[in-house]
Amino acid sequence: MQQNKQIKNIFVDRQVKNLPQVERILSQLQPLPVQVVDTVEEIKEDLCLSPDPIAESKKVLFLTREKSVIRPCPCTQGCVCCHYWTLDLNLNCPLDCSYCILQAYLNLQPLTLAVNQEDLQVELDTFFSRQNGEVLRIGTGELGDSLALDSISGQASLLAGLVGGRKRVWLELKTKTAGIDSLMAMPAPENVVLAWSLNSKRIINSEEGGSANFEERLRAAFRAVEQGYRVAFHLDPIIYYSDWEREYEDIIVELLKKIPGEALAWVSLGTLRFPAKLREIARWRFPQSMIYEGEFIRSWDGKFRYPRPLRLKLYEKFKKIFQEYGLSHKLYLCMESSEVWREFLGQNKKGKLYTSPFCWLD
Ligand code: SF4
User: Fold this and answer.
1) Is 308 a domain residue?
2) Does any domain span residue 19?
3) For ligand 1, mutation pick of 90, 91, 97, 103 (most atoms within 8 Å of CB)
4) Is there an atom of ligand 1 within 6 Å of 96 CB?
5) Domain of 271: which CATH number?
6) pLDDT tens digits, one per residue of 303-335
7) Domain encompassing residue 311
8) What burial class does residue 335 get, using C-beta atoms within 10 Å of its C-beta: 0-12 exposed, 13-18 middle, 19+ buried?
């Protein structure tokens, strides 16, 4: 599915209306109506009149100037940090997952693309010049899908070109689409990792609106490997339901049979978690979804999670499958407490917690 096909309206920030990138993007979206605005608030005023402003916000494209921000991943209070950095260039996502946290975080933000590409290089150079030689993992998939709008923005190959070849820096582009054409048209930089969020086929079909199906994602990942990329996978959010064990095992086995272990950069595991506000919004927007109806506890950071024994049971099952393929060392947990990490790794309660599946990056 081409995510840009759902765009119905385009707004251009007056500050960027004469940039050549804007002209290039608009020419691909003709004959959609285009309006020049002075602030995003003008767009939000219209969005809030829609019966489902979140769904509407995914049909409206806003081209603007944004200061790209590289910051340590906010993770969540009290969790073991995986030392990830996020690079926020765009805001909002054309896909529509029932569990998407952006529904609760973004306040009527249209699909916002930063088009001031010339500033990006300067900002990246400045950021890298301040680093002390530590290994950095950076990703753009925090506030939207890294590749969903790439066919019109061309950002992925631009970024891969800017970061490719830098020592001790890894760029991760994370997606639920199969939109990797622009990256396939260039030689694979060694330090660019293409990553797919995966779920059981049932969850993909019922909860991940507008995304590529499992087979399409896996085919795209295999294509990336053939091109020379390392790939990563995020099994997140893992959902507990009656057939979870068989259905997750099926997709992991399919994945591990198709993708050679040496091409796997890392695999994260994370169970469903959400703030109360998201559940409220999602129950209204996705009344058919059952994922919020299980048993949850309110955890240390205020988010709801499955009870700890259940989370461990899910993680153990996934670990066992990866162990059978000799690949459990590539796993890490996303947004989990040190207690769960220790049990997952079989470490005792004393001593330093050793969590990193990334030591091979050094
Ligand atoms: S792909 Fe990610 S950012 Fe986009 S709607 Fe789904 S969870 Fe949200």
Assistant:
1) yes
2) no
3) 97
4) yes
5) 3.80.30.30
6) 999 999 999 999 999 999 999 999 999 999 988
7) 65-94+116-361
8) buried
